[in-house]
TrEMBL record:
It comes from the Eukaryota. Gene3D superfamilies: AhpD-like (1.20.1290.10). One of its GO terms (cellular component) is nucleus. It is found in: Cytoplasm. The keyword Kinase does not apply. Belongs to the sestrin family. InterPro entries: AhpD-like (IPR029032), Sestrin (IPR006730). It catalyses: a hydroperoxide + L-cysteinyl-[protein] = S-hydroxy-L-cysteinyl-[protein] + an alcohol. The keyword DNA repair does not apply. This is SESN1 protein.
Length: 460
């Protein structure tokens, strides 16, 4: 009657991919989750949808929140407004308007200059110089060389210090991979964010105003079936789980009986690396529409390209020559104290996280499957572990799963609900969120390894 426009949520729950009733409801969480919600609220000033989906795995969420809080708010080489602006630059590379909008607000809140938000060319030259590293890290990290590092550290009055550069690199990789999580789990914008609400026409005679606040959207709300979801018989998907467990058992037996030679292992890696190029990311038009955020970065046509295409041959990055554990960790910790420790803990939790379940099965050792997912991602980035048999990847990861992995890791903005629904159809949503945590951390570590190796080469 007063003509006041009342916002109502566009989505149902924190994720477009996971039915609201299957997420953890606020008010029904256990004591551990309640503490994490309180921490998240105190840090961010809101309980955001990323937290509401990540809380399926409280141990990981705790580590994630601690790391993000340290990177954005604790003492460090970079001023606060620079940190949020770098977050905007990184998220914009994947057109992740959800993260861009969050950090635009935070950037202004800590006193950032609104003019910078009109486009990267309005930001200080020092931040503009980071554009090249941002795009390579996001799309083709294997191309980063010590010359790129040298340009940033030696550009006279706009130069970066080593400590500042490490802080920036960790922030860029954090937000590239968080964009992967956001798209991979179909995170919806909160009601107060752009894209998170619509307005009801002024006439609200057909139901009570309080219904809007309680999330009831009236009879005229369109409840379409999930776009493109493929109905699947439960016996078919149960067979899928049984078949996967049987393969794991057989591989374990083969492992125990014989070990492939080093040459054979190298050949299998090359084969898997080559095959990963023929796993096409989705070109589906169903992917979430995003506001144009391209003004926050340069060279909008630059995107992911497989590293062995167009006659380019990128030498294999051998993990025993430069690894996170032996090299990257100590470099980060030396130049940005405590961050190496926080990242290390987060990588370990994601990699080792298990509840010993697979769909409806209990007491299952899932380590072989987790390692296959992690190593497949590193293989797509050209990183090889000498002690791993890459033949296992084809046995354990089917085509639809590989398409999902590659899309979420390399071109997350193209992830669709259809792709999320089509892999591991009998598994719990919490297990699919766990997969996303593996993708996020493996991607972040791969990007970091290329950047830190280039920094090490520059220093030596």
């Amino acid at each position: 009657e007063l003509g006041i426009r009342i916002p109502r949520p566009l989505g149902h729950g924190p994720s477009r991919f996971i039915p609201e009733k299957e997420t953890i409801q606020v008010g029904k969480e256990d004591a551990t989750m309640h503490t994490l919600f309180a921490e998240s609220f105190a840090t961010l000033g809101r309980l955001d949808n990323v937290t509401l989906v990540m809380v399926f795995h409280p141990q990981y969420l705790e580590s994630f929140l601690k790391t993000q809080h340290y990177l954005l708010q604790m003492d460090g080489p970079l001023p606060l407004h620079y940190r949020h602006y770098i977050g905007i630059m990184a998220a914009a590379r994947h057109q992740c308007s959800y993260l861009v909008n969050l950090h635009v607000n935070d950037f202004l809140h800590v006193g950032g200059d609104p003019k910078w938000l009109n486009g990267l060319e309005n930001a200080p030259q020092k931040l503009q110089n980071l554009g090249e590293l941002n795009k390579m890290l996001a799309h083709r990290p294997w191309l980063i060389t010590k010359e790129h590092i040298e340009q940033l550290l030696k550009t006279e009055e706009n130069s970066w210090s080593l400590a500042e550069l490490i802080h920036a690199v960790v922030l860029l990789t954090h937000y590239h991979s968080l964009a992967s999580f956001t798209f991979g789990c179909g995170i919806s914008p909160e009601i107060d964010c752009e894209g998170g609400h619509t307005f009801r026409p002024p006439s609200v005679s057909n139901y009570c105003i309080c219904d809007v606040t309680n999330g009831y959207h009236g009879v005229d709300e369109i409840h379409a079936s999930p776009a493109g979801s493929v109905p699947v018989s439960s016996t078919e998907s149960v067979c899928e789980v049984e078949a996967l467990m049987e393969k794991m058992k057989q591989l374990q037996e083969c492992r125990d009986e014989e070990e492939a030679s080093q040459e054979e292992m190298a050949t299998r890696f090359e084969r898997e690396k080559r095959e990963s190029m023929f796993v096409c990311c989705s070109e589906d038009e169903e992917s979430a529409a995003t506001r144009d955020v391209s003004r926050h970065f340069e060279d909008t046509s630059y995107g992911y390209k497989d590293f062995s295409r167009h006659g380019m041959h990128v030498p294999t990055f051998r993990a025993q020559d430069y690894s996170w554990e032996d090299h990257g960790y100590s470099l980060v910790n030396r130049l940005y104290p405590d961050v190496g420790q926080l990242l290390d803990e987060k990588f370990h939790i994601a990699y080792n996280l298990t509840y010993n379940t697979m769909a409806m099965h209990k007491d299952v050792d899932t380590s072989m499957l987790r390692r296959a997912i992690w190593n497949y991602i590193h293989c797509m980035f050209g990183i090889r572990y000498d002690d791993y048999d890459y033949g296992e990847i084809n046995q354990l990861l089917d085509r639809s799963f590989k398409v999902y992995i590659k899309t979420v890791v390399c071109t997350p903005e193209k992830t669709t609900k259809r792709m999320y629904d089509s892999f591991w159809r009998q598994f719990e949503h919490s297990e699919k969120v766990h997969v996303n945590l593996l993708l996020v951390e493996a991607r972040m570590q791969a990007e970091l390894l290329y950047a830190l190796r280039a920094i090490t080469r520059y220093m030596t």
